[in-house]
Amino acid sequence: MVAGCATTTGLAGFATATIEVGDQPLTVLLAETSTQRRQGLREVPSLPVGIDGMLFVWDAPTTATFGMLDTMMPLDIWWFDGDGILLGSTRMEPCPAEPCAGHGSPGPIRWALETPAGEFELETGARLSTVEIP
What 3-state DSSP class applies to 36? Predict the structure, then answer.
């Protein structure tokens, strides 16, 4: 699944993968470690050419809260449960300084996908695939 490494400022060290949500193929950066999940898309003015978003991955279902401090572009976040089913999404706006709003998952999730705001219309109930789902 790993296809390479992004080299845009702030994104060095993130592997890439191709996933599908329903029938929508996406090329994403993978945030698989706690350090990568904390970094996310902070201080990134735009995604590298050919990259559709960032997929945040946890080993087991968890609840998560995302913040937009120092994030430079509006994002949609898509929440996937432990079976890879899309639970819904949240629009998040950049926050240049504290205090910033937190955007919590609607329940336990195993994956969260950030994409530039308004770029994709993914259907609630669609399944995330090409990622190993136990």
Answer: helix
- Cβ–Cβ < 8 Å for 126, 21: yes
Does residue 36 form part of some domain? yes
Handedness of CA 76, 77, 79, 84 (dihedral sign): positive
Q: What is the DSSP letter of 39?
A: H
Let me know if residue 134 belongs to a domain: no
pTM of the model as a whole = 0.90
Specify the number of domains making up the chain: 1
pLDDT digits (tens, 9 = 90+) for 57-95: 999 999 999 999 999 999 999 999 999 999 999 999 999
- The answer to whether 41 touches 28, Cβ cutoff 8 Å, is no
Domain span at 43: 4-129
Asked whether the beta carbons of 16 and 28 are under 8 A apart, the reply is: yes
